Amino acid sequence: MEAKVFRVPMRSPDDVQGVAELVESGRLRAGEVRCIMGKTEGNGCVNDFSRGFSNFVLSDYFARALNISRREAEARISLIMSGGTEGAMSPHFTVFAASPGGGPAAEESGGKRLAFASGHTREFLPEEIGRMPQAEATAEMVRRLMGEAGIGDPSDLHFVQVKCPLLTAERIRGAPQRGKGVRVEDTYKSMAYSRGASALGVALAAGEVRAAQLSDEAICRDWSLASGVASTSAGIELMCNEVTVFGNSPAWGGGLLIGHSVMRDALDRDAVKAALESAGLAFGWGLSPEQRERVVNVLAKCEASPDGLIRGRRHTMLDDSDINSTRHARAVVNAVVASVVGDPMVYVSGGAEHQGPPGGGPIAVIARAS
Amino acid sequence: MEAKVFRVPMRSPDDVQGVAELVESGRLRAGEVRCIMGKTEGNGCVNDFSRGFSNFVLSDYFARALNISRREAEARISLIMSGGTEGAMSPHFTVFAASPGGGPAAEESGGKRLAFASGHTREFLPEEIGRMPQAEATAEMVRRLMGEAGIGDPSDLHFVQVKCPLLTAERIRGAPQRGKGVRVEDTYKSMAYSRGASALGVALAAGEVRAAQLSDEAICRDWSLASGVASTSAGIELMCNEVTVFGNSPAWGGGLLIGHSVMRDALDRDAVKAALESAGLAFGWGLSPEQRERVVNVLAKCEASPDGLIRGRRHTMLDDSDINSTRHARAVVNAVVASVVGDPMVYVSGGAEHQGPPGGGPIAVIARAS
Amino acid sequence: MEAKVFRVPMRSPDDVQGVAELVESGRLRAGEVRCIMGKTEGNGCVNDFSRGFSNFVLSDYFARALNISRREAEARISLIMSGGTEGAMSPHFTVFAASPGGGPAAEESGGKRLAFASGHTREFLPEEIGRMPQAEATAEMVRRLMGEAGIGDPSDLHFVQVKCPLLTAERIRGAPQRGKGVRVEDTYKSMAYSRGASALGVALAAGEVRAAQLSDEAICRDWSLASGVASTSAGIELMCNEVTVFGNSPAWGGGLLIGHSVMRDALDRDAVKAALESAGLAFGWGLSPEQRERVVNVLAKCEASPDGLIRGRRHTMLDDSDINSTRHARAVVNAVVASVVGDPMVYVSGGAEHQGPPGGGPIAVIARAS
Amino acid sequence: MEAKVFRVPMRSPDDVQGVAELVESGRLRAGEVRCIMGKTEGNGCVNDFSRGFSNFVLSDYFARALNISRREAEARISLIMSGGTEGAMSPHFTVFAASPGGGPAAEESGGKRLAFASGHTREFLPEEIGRMPQAEATAEMVRRLMGEAGIGDPSDLHFVQVKCPLLTAERIRGAPQRGKGVRVEDTYKSMAYSRGASALGVALAAGEVRAAQLSDEAICRDWSLASGVASTSAGIELMCNEVTVFGNSPAWGGGLLIGHSVMRDALDRDAVKAALESAGLAFGWGLSPEQRERVVNVLAKCEASPDGLIRGRRHTMLDDSDINSTRHARAVVNAVVASVVGDPMVYVSGGAEHQGPPGGGPIAVIARAS
Predict the structure, then answer these.
(1) pLDDT band at residue B170 using 50, 70 and 90 as cut-offs
(2) Which residues in chain D are contacts of A43 at CB distance < 8 A?
(3) Within 13 Å and on the Cβ side, how many CA atoms surround B31?
């Protein structure tokens, strides 16, 4: 297998022309697309319809291209739309295709290449969301997908994208009839618990935490537990966890590599450098023009530091009733990453419970091998 | 003379305790304070009352400390409040005092030290705002203040802060009676024209443009004309230009230096490095802990690039009807600067007409000499 | 002919289930739908993607229902999506169908019934937008559509919805090559000029202004000229004016009537009463339950009064840099209308140049005849 | 005693000129001012500095006028600043003075006149906030102030304004050391609990609920318990409840009356009418010009209905991540009230836990007796 990854600019949430041109030019086969991650230009919060709009138009496009129904297209391709392109962030899609063409990478070229696999857990009961059953099912799925993708060692696992469910009033009402209450009744907060449980599931599979450390109580409470490779986001449209693992595998060919690091706070420029170097791009002050060409995309998670401080200085993100803190945080982390790689069209997503340390988050780099 | 500069955190717009503690501890004499630049945590736009609140409380404090009226305190100390602490930016005051204590810097220590001087032009007629008379009076004032501060050479001039007037409906009504219309009838846009004319006045005095290049028509139209040291902001409370020049002078002593560079876009990390090096702080990837200690503050101007692109990528700042583009831009530039100096408590102000290239802006660094 | 009008709640911008149920239940024939006016829950400003999302999903639905292409569906049905459901306003679609079933209304029942017709002008050159050619072509189209709908007398014309073009950077660039500049270079302001010229075209056809009063200069300047029946909104997706006239006609049957009045300011409760009475609903303090049932929908235009005053009191809508003034205005007018009719699911749209007096706007009521 | 009440427009949060002119003209004695309620033009949420700015400038003014310290002025005059003037709401102060001049009202004029009294409870421990001790102390204070003001009967009590404390991280940390946790750890939510407990305290004193119905558990849970006269708002600057009761008393003279009603939802126009009639202003469709002159101010509380519906229609206030729901709700209720009284300069404040039914709130009218 060979991974093909394309970063495509978007002029508006319904602009799939860039994707269409890849297909029409023959560079991308519609039938090989497995996953699309998008940064769409809504507010990234509750009433962000840019995500759904991109989803609708993308699935409509692939339904026509593959002569299947929209629903079948959605089942076939994992569509992960992350809203919010604050500051310099440039709206775009990242298209992941798995092509049978490539054989294993030649030994002399490092021997491992970008590999990925997608799958979804069983559907959860509302009372399981934000609790151990969700974490455990996620861990199990990550392990299975690592096997499928041929990512043998946790040290070769660099990014795990999880789309997880949230609670709604209707879902909450069903739970007590089965004898157990839900984890949290506030629907907005249920997103955090679902993201947190999912991230700890990834941490478990990645060997970053031990099973004995986890419990219902630890989720969204014991912040010392975290994954350096999890990227989780909650959505209303599903009741299972949809998981995509990314890593390097000796079984895959092609010319791409992935690496990662963990930002310890929103200004952690050193982690950006470390992530680039982890993907084979070593440099002093800045990337060379040739190195810049080799960067396919950077994927990062972020949040406003919950203690209200960055490097000991007070920030105002959490007290701002006009602009949501996640919007501020995305602008900051995008700017830090973009200033190092010299390109603002990188993927930064908000809400990082148990994903890196409080106020920080994982950062992965996909790059062409030299 | 000796310049003393203190950067003081602010817990809210009315928190002057940090300033009071400097005075009470004897490190700062209230009577020597000449200028205070503040980053306050409002929206930085029209209905930002955090600026006025800080102004009121600061002048109230100094009136009591110096046993004068609030009005006298405002006349004595140039108070420049810039609203908007988006992203990681941390609210703070920068207090500039001129102390008679210091003699000229010893020849062996480089021979020049941070110097500054403040003054204000005559009051303008409404029809002069955004036109050549405002530019010319500003240029004249900059030259006079350079003389006062002992900044002999334009290459020693590193930052010129100008507070300039704007047009109101009332001011506009008076103009036609004198036979000449105002430059622009839109009061919000008059802020841009006033900032632009003032910046070109600074450029003229600094030798960055020639008099023959300037005209009423060139203001806010010919963007090839710009100053790399001007930082101008419009306010409703005055009809003159209030100017403070900052540079290095052989006539001043003390331990501070200023340097500067120009960001060519909002992500220009190289310019941050160049500005730090211009102030005596040379480094490879990052500042050493000792060097960080020597940074007193960084002062930068920014704006969303008017062509909608950064590094060839589309940004969404100009189409965002929920968040003003200046708010996005401040978050970006603060993050870029903060990630390099390791501190988000730096001064970044929006609205950069004729201040650096379109989408970019001047950046100055005040640092302790080694 | 008989007009059928259905008001359908929307749970999100892509929720067309209410429309589908009307069709499936046999109450509405998909092929008879001529126009859909929607209130979608975006910000109603530049980056409002809820409008486009509803448009896409509606045209997708009708394409499938009628077995035509999405493009053909859009050509067949005038889709007018107005963003912004501030305050209590409830998102909904109003579906207008023309059914051949109904004969002329019986003489004894008043003799006239709701009639409507849609059409579009030729495409405009960029330099014609916001100028007399646009106004004149609109007037001509209104007259033609009045004829088509059998609305013989201007006093029977109660509401004219116009979707008109705006200028973009690209469109502006083309104009000088043809020897004439565009009306305004600011793309956002071009929306106001286009709305204004279109509204004056309606006023001309409705006999509210005389041709001699109109000129390029009068558009968006002489606010004494206005239409009490025009409702115009600018969109990027067309270069012609798409016009729908609504009135009462002796040639149409069915059970619906339309009436209107003009709000003189955003709080003009008396005009709401007058509009209801104009549609046959006379009352004292409030509508009776039976009368409430007869209200099909209320359609109103609004804006923040440009002089900053309502009833002599200062409002803060125009100085608010966090919330656009049109958003405030919609919340106010919807609340005033909703409090009188007892229902917040009414249509209120912002931006009312030459539509009613400054700060006010037309208000129409569609009701079932008694 | 005689109550004097003045409604004064404000041009900005620091504009106290209207108050100063009342004093200078001799219509108001600075020493007789007991309470000022302000509507200031901030966002009414966490980072609203317009409230503090008005507070600072008002206390500064009265300190100078009465030749006392700012702190003494604040202790002497209850300053209640409510942020948020969305929609048509016009910023203003309402100044309440108690003048010894007036004797009891003549029997023939109705026998009762506007009376009020202010006081504050003991300081609460953090763990008491949002629980019964806060409710009980509030009830006790209301009863005592009713006695002081000569409001003998609960039916003569029409409005009780309470300023109550909130929890901060620091306050929360202290509680466990005393063996009992705080009611809620989320500082923003503590505002709701504090408002709710205070409102139930008012309800208890007003005889609207019985002591047996109240418990820690009922606060912010059993919404069937509510006061029709309570108006409570939380602020960071105090740890006690500051209470002002307003009613009609046979012991007071002067020419003012107060009445009230309860809005059952945000569009409840009938309740506005009932409140006006309760204050002696009976009318059919609208107030006469003479009646409008008699309205001194209207005071109302509001909130977005928590079930997401108004009159059975979905509203979008609770899902709007760009504009806080309280901002939407204020725009709506102000518009409804203003459209009936013909004046947008009325007081509408958000956050109505246990103040009227869910989605509704109390509304009081102060008017000149005929």
Answers:
(1) confident
(2) 321-322
(3) 4
Judged by CB atoms closer than 8 Å, whether chains meet at C47 and B324 is answered as no
Over chain B, what is the mean pLDDT?
Answer: 94
- Give the chain C residue nearest A323 (alpha carbons): C322
CA atoms within 13 A on the CB side of B143: 11
D334 near D345, Cβ under 8 Å? no
pLDDT of residue C102: 63
Instruction: Identify the contact set of chain A against chain C, taking CB-CB distances under 8 A.
Output: 12-14, 41-42, 47, 49-50, 52-53, 56-57, 60, 322
Phi, psi of A301, rounded to the nearest 5 degrees: -110, 150
Residues B316-337: tens digit of each pLDDT: 999 999 999 999 999 999 999 9
Q: Does C189 score more than 90 pLDDT?
A: no
Give which of C224, C200, C227 is closest to C214, Cα–Cα. C200
> Which pLDDT value is given to residue A108?
56
Question: Looking at residue A102, what is its pLDDT?
Answer: 63
Q: Could A47 and D324 be called an inter-chain contact, meaning their C-beta atoms sit closer than 8 Å?
A: no
Mind spelling out the 3-state secondary structure of chain A?
Answer: CEEEEEEEECCCCCCCHHHHHHHHCCCCCHHHEEEEEEEECCCCCCCCCHHHHHHHHHHHHHHHHHCCCHHHHHHHCEEEEEECCCCCCCCEEEEEEEECCCCCCCHHHCCCEEEEEEEECCCCCHHHCCCHHHHHHHHHHHHHHHHHHCCCCHHHEEEEEEEECCCCHHHHHHHHHHCCCCCCCCHHHHHHHHHHHHHHHHHHHCCCCCHHHCCCCCCCCCCCCCECCEEEEECCCCCCCEEEEEEEECCCECCEEEEEEEECCCCCHHHHHHHHHHCCCCCCCCCCHHHHHHEEEEEEEECCCCCCEECCEECCHHHCCCCCHHHHHHHHHHHHHHHHHCCCCCEEEECCCCECCCCCEEEEEEEECC
Chains that touch B (3 or more CB pairs under 8 A): A, C, D
pLDDT score, position D44: 92
C104-141 tens-digit pLDDT: 665 555 689 999 999 999 999 999 999 999 999 999 99
Query: Is residue A11 a contact partner of residue A38, using CB atoms and an 8 Å limit?
Result: no
pTM attached to this predicted model: 0.96
Q: Which of C322, C325, C327, C330 to mutate to test the interface with B (most CBs of B within 10 A)?
A: C322
pLDDT at position C224 over 60: yes
Q: Which has the minimum average pLDDT: A65-69, B28-32, C243-247, D97-101?
A: D97-101
How far apart are the CA of B307 and the nearest CA of chain A, in angstroms? 13
> Neighbouring chains of A at 3+ CB pairs within 8 Å?
B, C, D
Could you read off the pLDDT of B333-352 as tens digits, one per residue?
999 999 999 999 999 999 99
Distance CA A148, CA A151 (A): 8
D324 Cα to chain A: minimum distance (Å) = 7
Q: What is the DSSP letter of D190?
A: H
Q: How far is A140 from chain B (nearest CA, A)?
A: 37
Distance from the D46 Cα atom to the nearest Cα atom in chain B, whole angstroms: 12
Helix, strand, or coil (residue B36): strand
Binned at pLDDT 50, 70 and 90, residue B189 comes out as confident
Instruction: Give the pLDDT confidence score for residue C106 in this predicted structure.
Output: 59
Closest alpha carbon within chain B to D321: B322
Q: Which of A74-83, B133-142, D263-272 has the lowest mean pLDDT?
A: A74-83
Q: Counting Cβ atoms within 10 Å, is residue B45 exposed (0-12), middle (13-18) or buried (19+)?
A: middle
Average pLDDT over residues A68-78: 95
Taking contacts as CB-CB distances below 8 angstroms, the residues of chain B near C47 are: 316, 319-322
Q: Could you tell me which chain D residue has the CA closest to the CA of B15?
A: D52
Overall average pLDDT of the D231-243 stretch: 91
